[in-house]
């Protein structure tokens, strides 16, 4: 093999190596920060990319997976001057690898420092009871404030968690006493409300009973009034019929009605259980005779 062939083979080999050096395969979980002569030029995302070898180089390989700061504990003084220890952690991920690489050296320490300050500030504006009951809203506030601070580093804070709130034994005992007092207060209120409700129900029962009694009296009065009205209507109708008979038959009809009532009275007296002996005056026979005569006369008039 002559010299030219050897040189050509070397050139071809170097060219192949040069091309192979320029191909970069980026994993899905990473991004590559590329520099040209020490200056940032581009960020390679997942897949196959090509850079100019010897001129460009991959300076940093940054993971874009969500990460978690180790759980940390900080001492906080609440609004009501109670010292508590909070355990918290932060979840974040890189969204701008260039900013993360060139703006801050140790991103975990920077986030820890910022998170500590923001958690202490957020907890210091709350009282102890609010701190324990408003943990979700406090997590949201911490995440929002920390996200603004970490944005300049190319970091997205996905969430923060206050995992535990620890107080000393004296504070716990005070809380127990306060809880017992609250329970007693609620029990007294419940008992008072029960007594009040019972009184209201008893009063309602008495009112209902009075209303029903008044209703019964009203119904009875209406029934009596209706009975009187019916009797009056019957009496009026009877009077009207008698008056009509008088107008039609004259004196004979009147005498007939009087004699009829006398006969009815004698029949009633005779049918009485207390009547053992019945003495009838002679006027009675006259009455019966007169009644027969009037009947015949009324028939003749008809």
TrEMBL record:
It is found in: Membrane. It holds the Pfam family Band_7. Its main location: membrane. CDD domains: SPFH_paraslipin. InterPro entries: Band7/mec-2_domain, Band_7, Band_7/SPFH_dom_sf, Stomatin_HflK_fam. It is a single-pass membrane protein. Belongs to the band 7/mec-2 family. This is SPFH/Band 7/PHB domain protein. It comes from Litorivicinus lipolyticus.
């Amino acid at each position: 093999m002559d010299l030219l062939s050897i040189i050509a083979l070397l050139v071809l080999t170097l060219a192949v190596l040069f091309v192979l050096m320029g191909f970069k395969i980026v994993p899905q979980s990473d991004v590559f920060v590329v520099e040209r002569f020490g200056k940032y030029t581009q960020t390679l995302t997942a897949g196959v990319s090509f850079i100019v070898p010897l001129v460009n180089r991959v300076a940093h390989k940054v993971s874009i997976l969500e990460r978690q700061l180790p759980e940390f504990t900080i001492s906080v003084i609440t609004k009501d001057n109670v010292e508590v220890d909070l355990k918290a952690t932060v979840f974040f991920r890189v969204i701008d690898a260039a900013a993360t690489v060139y703006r801050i050296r140790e991103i975990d320490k920077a986030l820890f420092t910022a998170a500590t300050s923001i958690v202490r500030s957020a907890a210091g504006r709350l009282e102890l009871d609010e701190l324990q009951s408003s943990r979700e809203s406090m997590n949201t506030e911490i995440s929002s404030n920390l996200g603004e601070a970490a944005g300049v580093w190319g970091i997205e804070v996905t969430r923060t968690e206050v995992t535990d709130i620890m107080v000393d034994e004296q504070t716990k005992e005070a809380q127990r006493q306060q809880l017992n007092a609250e329970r007693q207060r609620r029990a007294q209120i419940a008992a008072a409300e029960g007594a009040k409700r019972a009184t209201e129900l008893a009063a309602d029962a008495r009112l209902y009973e009075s209303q029903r009694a008044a209703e019964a009296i009203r119904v009875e009065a209406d029934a009596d009034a209706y009975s009187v009205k019916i009797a009056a209507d019957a009496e009026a109708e009877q009077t009207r019929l008698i008056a009509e008979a008088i107008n039609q038959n004259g004196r004979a009809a009147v005498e007939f009605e009087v004699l009829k009532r006398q006969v009815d009275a004698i029949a009633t007296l005779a049918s009485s259980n207390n009547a053992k002996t019945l003495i009838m005056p002679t006027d009675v026979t006259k009455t019966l005779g007169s009644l027969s005569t009037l009947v015949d006369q009324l028939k003749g008039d008809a």
